[in-house]
């Protein structure tokens, strides 16, 4: 059941990252640009561009995690290992956002790999 709780929290994290990214875009271009049809190419700050990439990366990884969490839940293969993997995924994704925003290398990549490995563990539990 922890997998479903983490799935919901990860979705809320995505909402938070999206809202924060939107605020950064407003800061860089003004709210008029965000409300416009966006015909021109914006020139965002480095940190705004980083948050845009972090947001896209979170969505990509969220899809993989969501499928793993649902597979664990539906097959009733949840136990301490899948619970732990789910929480590791969430903590890694939470750490990933500021690591990307502030350009912390190699921590961004380390947090990414922690979340990915945790997701893979969940798939392996379902498969075997």
From TrEMBL:
Keywords: Membrane, Transmembrane, Transmembrane helix. GO terms for cellular component: membrane. The chain crosses the membrane at residues 58-74, 86-104, 110-127. SUPFAM superfamilies: MAPEG domain-like. Its main location: membrane. It comes from the Bacteria. Signal peptide: none annotated. It is found in: Membrane. It holds the Pfam family MAPEG. This is MAPEG family protein.
């Amino acid at each position: 059941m922890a997998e479903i709780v983490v799935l919901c929290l990860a979705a809320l994290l995505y909402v938070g990252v999206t809202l924060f990214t939107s605020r950064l875009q407003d800061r860089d271009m003004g709210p008029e640009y965000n409300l416009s049809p966006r015909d021109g190419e914006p020139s965002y700050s480095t940190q705004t561009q980083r948050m845009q990439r972090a947001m896209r990366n979170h969505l990509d990884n969220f899809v993989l995690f969501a499928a793993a969490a649902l597979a664990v839940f539906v097959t009733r293969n949840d136990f301490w290992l899948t619970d732990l993997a789910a929480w590791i995924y969430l903590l890694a994704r939470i750490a990933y956002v500021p690591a990307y925003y502030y350009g912390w290398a190699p921590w961004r990549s380390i947090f990414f790999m922690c979340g990915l490995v945790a997701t893979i563990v969940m798939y392996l539990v379902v498969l075997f």
